[in-house]
């Protein structure tokens, strides 16, 4: 069972110790940088992703100040836990958490990924995100989930 829990003084070291496979490292910012970035993002939260009682991943998401919609800035599952369906379950939990906390004006969740990262593209497509054709931010493909 997947749960989203706060990143706290008790688990933050474990969160920054999570890592993706070597071939994925070029596609994702470290969790340590993401936690530092959180101090400058007013309406964002960091969540540790647990499968039962075991830490398996991390997410950073919230309302973007530029467009006023929800964005997922970071999403990762540790390399030891990939391929076990935790990613799909965790993303579903994130979407449900956003749905439960959003205002009626919030209509979408947006994220971006490296165009070369075909595994991410396929993953997000299966969840229900749709690429925004022709929209790249910092050379990353933008994809959007609509409520």
From TrEMBL:
Enzyme class, broadest EC rank: transferase
Segments forming domain N-acetyltransferase: 2-147
Q: Extract the InterPro entries matched here.
A: Acyl_CoA_acyltransferase, GNAT_dom, MshD_Acetyltransferase
Tell me which CDD domains the record gives.
NAT_SF
An example Pfam family from this entry, by short name, is Acetyltransf_1
EC number(s) per entry: 2.3.1.-
Task: Note the PANTHER family from the entry.
Answer: L-AMINO ACID N-ACETYLTRANSFERASE, UPF0039 PROTEIN SLL0451
Q: What is this protein called?
A: GNAT family N-acetyltransferase
Q: Which organism is it from?
A: Chryseomicrobium palamuruense
